[in-house]
Amino acid sequence: MSEQQRTNTSIQDQGGSPANMPGFGGPRGPMANLGKPKVRAKDLGGTIRKLWRYLAVHKWMLILVLFMVVVNVAMGLLGPYVLGLAVDNLVYEEGDGLMRLIICLGGIYAGLSLSAFLQNYWMIGISQKTVYTMRKDLFRRLHLLPIDYFVKRRHGELMSRITNDIDNVSQTLNSSFIQIFSSVLTFAGMLVLMAALSPLLTLVTLLIVPLMLLGMRWITSRTGRLFKEQQRHLGELNGYVEETVSGQRIVKLFSQEKRVIEEFMEKNRRLRDASYWAQVYSGFIPKLMNVLNNASFAIIAAIGGWLTLRGVISVGTILVFAEYARQFTRPLNDLANQFNTLLSAVAGAERVFEVMEEEPEFEDHEDHEDPREKVHPQTAQLQTVRGEIRFENVSFSYDGDEGEKLDTLQGIDLHVKPGETMALVGPTGAGKTTITSLLARFYDPQQGRILIDGLDITTIARNELRRLMGFVLQDTFLFTGTIRENIRYGRLDASDEEVERAAKLANAHSFIIQLPQGYDTVLTQDAADISQGQRQLLAIARAILADPAILILDEATSSIDTITEIKIQEALYRLMQGRTSIVVAHRLNTIQNADQIVVLHQGRIIERGTHQSLLAKKGYYHDLYQSQFTSEAM
């Protein structure tokens, strides 16, 4: 696998998980989760314990919430009971207590509303504070992980953990946590009250439950397959939309609009058909519940009326039973829905904790609290770094997809004196960029060592090490923000005058002042409103502002027109003055003045020397230079 293949990510990888993209979604509502494939955590208990560590911070508020849930359930169960007493009082003409019962009933329903408001209000606060802390910890952990972690994982999948998975946890804490607890209490309390009022009517009501479970099982056995098919088509459609929107320029350049629209319509039609039948079958569930509830009500009314005529129970008891029977299946439905949602949220939380538990790169990060992670005392020597670089018998292999080692560098020995410029040349995949990555400690070699000013870089804090280096890469990355802010990224405490001085040295000032807002011009995503060459000049200005002791240029002038290349070369010449520089180049005419040129092939050094000495050898470098010179002349 080449270095380019390792660093490139596909269009598909840049987006979120298709099935979770905003704007597209499955069914909503109380029956949305029934019949859908369950997403379960691998370690349910362990994930819940980790989640509890975040919730435990708010344990007293949680106790209040649970107390309000108990109050709410008690009020909800007490309301129909008091209503039955009032009816009995009215029917049997015991009117003295009717007004007290009505006032009591008003107080119960007021308490029901207040407890519902308080439990939701407090739980929303707890959930938002919890996911705020989780999101902060996750984002911080991402910035402590090594580059290799991001290379091996899809960017969209990581984005999904920060957004979709944590949002899933938030929504579940807001609703499912309370709903599950409330449903269990409601079902148990309702069953106890019904049994106390009339064991016979309770038994009649319970006879409906097996019919309900059999009906739900018959329906969900079909909706499960249909929802899986719907999610598959939804994922295909979302992926296709993401791909075509990202590649809109290519679609228009090759006039493929008609074909793209036709393919979208076909995928959309398949999603429509799958969703139609999934919704039809899932729609049977509430209809089944209504039929069973109505049947239960009719049976209770008939048997209850018969018992009332014989003086076994009162009219109010029938009313209470009818109300309880009407609500009897609701807790079961809620439990079925919310339990699946809870399992899905725990699975999302597990994905979040997997990232948090990854081994960090910055063992010596200044904010890290692990007492084992301390900056090496010799780091102080780097305050006056000279910039001497040595690679001593360095070998390195990437980890392949199946765990095998992919050899990239073998036995590399290099020596760059302070202030010298060393150029690395060779075909794609020869190991040029890997050398610069090892120097920056994005990776550590499996063999050998790398030294700066005689100090092994593994003894230097990584953040301190990288502060010594300035990077100008082939693919310049600029953030959404002003040009001034993007240049200042090299040194955040730089003044406006220092930013402009760096831009002038980088030959960027002239084009910046021609922009509508000058240095305050806001760059859009990927800086698409300025040219590639202008982006490179801004990157050079950023590096100049950082004032690094060691400069790394990785294909900094590739894909640039001749005039812009001259400007970039002038800026780079100023930047390289007095600094140790390592230049990765494909254009050999840009490195003719390098102090030494190292030729790499298949991870090994095959030639080294100055431009003239290598040409005189008439070896690999000579052939490479001649072929490039001939192609440029043509």
Automatic annotation (TrEMBL):
SMART domains documented for this protein: AAA
Keyword Nucleus tagged: no
Molecular functions (GO terms): ABC-type oligopeptide transporter activity; ATP binding; ATP hydrolysis activity
Superkingdom of origin organism: Bacteria
Disordered: annotated segments: 1-22, 359-379
Lyase as UniProt keyword: no
Transmembrane stretches, start-end: 60-78, 98-118, 177-197, 203-220, 297-322
Membrane topology of this protein: Multi-pass membrane protein
Major place of residence: membrane
Xref: Pfam families: ABC_membrane, ABC_tran
Subcellular compartments: Cell membrane
Alphabetized UniProt keyword annotations: ATP-binding, Cell membrane, Membrane, Nucleotide-binding, Transmembrane, Transmembrane helix, Transport
A cellular-component GO term for this protein: plasma membrane
Domain ABC transporter: 389-627
Gene3D superfamilies: ABC transporter type 1, transmembrane domain, P-loop containing nucleotide triphosphate hydrolases
Domain ABC transmembrane type-1 residues, every copy: 63-344
Compositional bias (Polar residues): 1-17
PANTHER family: ATP-BINDING CASSETTE SUB-FAMILY B MEMBER 10, MITOCHONDRIAL, ATP-DEPENDENT PERMEASE MDL1, MITOCHONDRIAL
Record-given protein name: ABC transporter ATP-binding protein YfiC
Organism: Insulibacter thermoxylanivorax
The gene coding this protein: yfiC
